[in-house]
Amino acid sequence: MTALPLSSPFTAEISQTVSALNAARSAWRERQAGRHAVARFPSPTVLSEAVEHLSAALFPARLGGFRGGVAREDDFVAERLGGAFALLGQEIDAEFDYWQRETDQPFDPDQAQTIVRLFAATLPEIRAAIDADVEAAFVGDPAARSVDEILISYPGALAIRYHRIAHELHALGAVIVARIVSEFANARTGIDIHPGATIGPSFFIDHGTGVVIGETAIIGRNVRLYQHVTLGARSPLGLAPAGPRTRHARHPILEDDVIVYAGATILGRVTIGRGSTIGGNVWLLDDVPAHSLIVQPGAIRLKEDQAHQLGARLAEHGA
């Protein structure tokens, strides 16, 4: 941290701002009465480094930059895993320190290490799932020249890679760490996938910007989404309760082989049946049978004189 010079021209402003921030913190703590002060909290900076180590271990040459030959590849992977696991253990431990204030029962002191060990066992499955996702993208996108191009540069591939890591951490109980990991992908790609969402193999998000997938969404095998698709929950009437939140299934289920085109919004615990296609900008609140095609009504084509009349009427009304 850079210290301000003793003769800073902003001395008065610093003093006033410090006082005002003190008042803001005090007001927050008063509203959070009964909750202990935060002693430790997971660090996004540290977790970002951990995910980079994991990505390198999963894909040594393409994402890790390893060039040492096959004979030394396992040593490189072991080194990266060692760094990743140490950082993850540290940050998961910080999360449990944070949650400890919510209960009188102490957590197992080895809880973070246990989660890291269990997470380590999922990495081969994560690697296989990402490989299937990349292959699905190659099949689904005629513009793709190679699977390597997809893994390295496609925003959808990055988002699902981060999700598959975050989902396993979420399932093991490191929910804040998982959410931070998922938000790295959101920040880089504009694709927002809650780590609680369950996503089957061979998943492809084409283009991707603006895609939102909620916490309890379930997505089957070989599903494809395009940009600005929302798999969301229907907002309840009134304000959400201030007390403990109940977790319930509130997001869509997409069965195998579903395609959802750009701008579609699917809300609530509805099921989109296997093999269905949902057209662009469709708004859906109901179940869709298998092998359905759901589209908007077609656009109306106006004759030239009708278009001029409509334009004049819109201009008259300030539209």
Detailed description of the structure:
The protein is α/β, with parallel strands linked by helices and 319 residues long. The chain has eight helices and 14 strands. The strands form three sheets. A five-stranded parallel beta sheet has the order 1-4-7-10-13. A five-stranded parallel beta sheet has the order 3-6-9-12-14. Helix 2 crosses helix 7 (175-189) and helix 4 packs across helix 5 (147-153). The chain starts with 10 loop residues before the first helix and ends with a helix. The model has no long low-confidence stretch (mean pLDDT 91).
Largest sheet features: 5 strands, parallel
Number of contiguous helices: 8
Pick out the low-confidence regions.
Answer: none
Average the pLDDT over all residues and give the rounded result: 91
* Cα shape: globular
Total strands: the figure is 14
Order of helices and strands: HHHHHHHEEEEEEEEEEEEEEH
Fraction of residues in helices?
40-55%
Radius of gyration: 25 Å
Strand order of the largest sheet: 1-4-7-10-13
